[in-house]
Each structure stands twice: as structure tokens, then as C-alpha cells.
Amino acid sequence: MATLKAIRRRIASVKSTQQTTRAMKLVAASRLRRAQEALFNARPYHEALTRVSDSLLASAPEALGAPEGAALAQWLVLVTSDRGLCGGYNANLIRLAEETMAKAQSEGLTPKLFVIGRKGAEHFKRAKMPLDGERINNLPRLATVGLARDVAARMLHEFRTGAVCEAGVIYSSFRSALSQRPIFEKLLPIKPPESAAGAADYLIEPSAAELIPAVLRSYVEAAIFHALLEGEASEHGARMTAMDSATNNAVDMIARLTLEMNRARQAQITKELMDIVGGAEALRG
Amino acid sequence: MAETFNFRLITPTGVLFDGAVEQVTAAGPLGEFGVLPMHTNFITSIAPGVITLKLGEGNFNEFLLAGGLAEVKDGAMTALAVEAEAPGAVNSAAAAEQAMAAEQRMATMSMFDPEYEEAAHSLALARARAQIEQLRRAPH
Questions:
Q1: Chain B residues in contact with A204 (beta carbon < 8 A)
Q2: For residue A257, which of A87, A97, A170, B101 sits 20 to 30 Å off, Cα-Cα?
């Protein structure tokens, strides 16, 4: 059995870990609330943009495809986090990215990967996989319009110049603090909306074909911004859950160690008593 | 009182304006355009610049847009911008400097440069920023 002193030291160390995980959980909870608010605020924009782009894209579907002779390649954006300690969040995303790339390869497409977030970038560097680009250290906030605009510009550039014929984004979709699911969303080429209704009801200036680049840009920017928002909320949700179970584990461990400590102390007292009694018996002898 | 219609200015970070206006003026791809009540259903893009809302009783409200889309549907107008600022937040001296920097950047670039579009965008935005200050000094 471990000595009393060692057990005491162990308890103190678990306690301090517990304090850290509890603080991290609280921080993650408040960040999650902020990220959820941002997700909520982005909704009207998303809805209005979808309505406008649907009516425009339906009227000029020929402008949506990849340029002729585009390379058989797929441009993927992977949204991971910069910081760890968030359970399987990044591992799940990376797995989906690898699966998606393997699938693209089996379809004859060369995958090109652009990674957002240190965790994803580090993983692929360790795996010695060349990246098409990365954006790490997106702190304090991941979901910024500026980042979305930069990445969207890169994506559209690759697509328009014919360097790739497909582009998509992998991010974690936020359902609740307990449940986040990595998903792959294909962004380009855009599928023309099914219901072409509404397109004819508008006066379009200068013309649908001329507006398409602007709409496409807004659309890709909004989609990437949305992915970043979902990713940010998921990251904080995952971290909150991970830190909550870490805190609970620490509580259990402290209870177990305290019991062990009390037993060890009692054993020591008993042993000392036995020694005294034994000594007294011997003297009386 | 003049007739009004509903106008919403929406960005990815939230709804910046939602209310009744008498007239909206913005810069479109073919030049400045205005929207009055009872406008036909309409879609156009907005160039980086200032959008002016006439609120009635001689009040105006302005926003700086980094470009976007405008839609009029069933008499209500929606402007979609990736970024928008209230003019109060704009520092005109910094804006003039940004415009200079953007111009210099443009001068060294070819049309086929991947960053050309981005540079043209920031130039238009910086010019609009510098312009909004003059607008504020010389009211409508």
C-alpha cells in the first residue's frame, strides 16, 4: 500500500487538476454561449442570401459549372481548432477529411487540402502530407468575416482558373453541447436550385449573368463563414463536455484516494498501538 | 407624411437596420440607384460605398457597405452586405491612408494577379470611407 504521504500528495495534485478543468469548463461554456449567439445572428443573412441567390442562379444555370478543361481535382477546406483538450473533436474531423480525400482519389480526383486551425495543420504535417495552404492561430475568435472572405477568395480563384473542378468544406455541425457531427459540404460547382420559380418575377440589373460572380462570391463567403461559426460553437461544446467529464473523474478519484488515505492512516495508527502494547507486554514480562 | 417601406440591412454578424424608410440610395454596378415605395421586384448588386436611408422628417441614416446584394420584393427592400459600418466608426485620415496604400498596391499588379480582385475591392472600400466623411460635412 502506498504511504500516507504519497497519497496526500496525489490528492493535492488531482485537486489542482480538477480546479483547472472546472475553470476550463466555465470558460468554454461562456464562449459557447457567445458562439451560439453569433450562429443565431447569422441566420437572417443566410436566409435572405439563399432566397436571392436561388432566384438568380436559377435564371443562369450555365454560368455555374467549372471552366472547361478544369483539372480533375478537389479543393477541400478543413475547419479544425487551434487548441486541444476538446475530446475527439479534431480527431473526428481529421478522420472525415481523410475519408473524403480517399473517396475523391477513388473517383479520379486529386485532393488538395486547405486547413484552418493548428490541430489539423499539425496532424497533416506529421503525416508528411503537403497542404495547399493553412490558417492557424485564429485567436481569439475563429469565425471572423475576414477569414471567411480570404478563404472564399482562394476557393473561387482555384475554381475559376480551372485548377480544380470541385470544392467543398469539412466542418463540425453543431447540434448541441453534447453532440457535434463532422460533415462534408460540397460548395462548388453549385447545384442549380430545383424550383426555378421566382426568377422571372424580378427585374435584374444589369443581368443575371453579370451578377452571378458577385452572388457566387457572397454565397461562398457565407457558406464558409457558416462553417466557421458551426465549427467554433462545436469546439466549445466539445471542450465543455470533455472538461465536465474530466472534472467528474477528478471528483471520483479524490473520493477513492481519500478512502485509501483514511485506510492507510488507520493502518498506521493500529500498527503504532500494536508496537506500544507489544513493548509494554515485554516490559511486564 | 410621405409613404414609407420596410428596409433591412443584414450582415453575417446580425441585422443592422430594420425599419421604415422613405427612400434608399446606394451605388449599383451601373451607377447610383434609388428605391422608393412601390418599387418593382428587383435584384442588383451593391458596389462598395455608402448607402443612404431617408428616414423622414429630414433625417438621414448612412452606412458604409463593403459591397453586397440588394433585393426588393413585394415592396420591402433587403440589402445584404458581408461587412457594413456605421459612419461614426470611420476614421477619415486612416481611410485616406488606406486608399493611398491600396492604390499603390494596385499599380504594381496585373489584371491576372490572384489578388487583383481583392486589391480593387479594398481600394473601392477605402475610397468610400474617405468619401463618407465629406458626406457628413456637407449634409444632403
A1: 42-44
A2: A87
Best A202, A212, A220, A230 residue to mutate vs chain B (most B CBs within 10 Å): A202
Rounded CA-CA distance B67/A72 in Å is 33
Same-domain check for residues B95 and B116:
yes
Residue of A nearest to B67 (CA): A214
Q: Check CB contact of B133 with chain A, cutoff 8 Å.
A: no
Residue A210 CB contacts under 8 Å (≥ 6 apart), including other chains: B29
Q: What is the pLDDT of residues B47-61, one digit of tens each?
A: 888 899 998 888 888
- Asked if A225 lies within 8 A of B12 by C-beta distance, the reply is yes
Structural domain range at position B36? 5-85
Q: What's CA B92's distance to the chain center, in Å?
A: 16
Higher pLDDT, B84 or A111: A111
What average pLDDT does chain A have? 90
Q: In terms of domains, do B9 and B63 share one?
A: yes
pLDDT digit string, tens, across residues B92-116: 677 777 777 777 777 777 666 666 6
Specify the CATH number for the domain of residue B80: 2.60.15.10
For residue B10, give the nearest of A44, A148, A210 by CB distance.
A44
So what's the ipTM on this one?
0.77
- Quote the CA–CA distance of A170 and A97 in Å, as a whole number: 7
Range scoring the smallest mean pLDDT among A138-142, A196-200, A273-277, B61-65 = A196-200
CB contact under 8 A, B13 and A42: yes
Query: Do B99 and B72 share a structural domain?
Result: no
Classify residue B108 as exposed, middle or buried by CB count within 10 Å of its CB (0-12, 13-18, 19+). exposed
Nearest-CB residue to A214 (from B11, B69, B73): B69
pLDDT value at residue A62 = 66
Best CA proximity match to A232, nearest among A31, A11, A57:
A31
What is the chain B residue with the closest CA to A226? B12
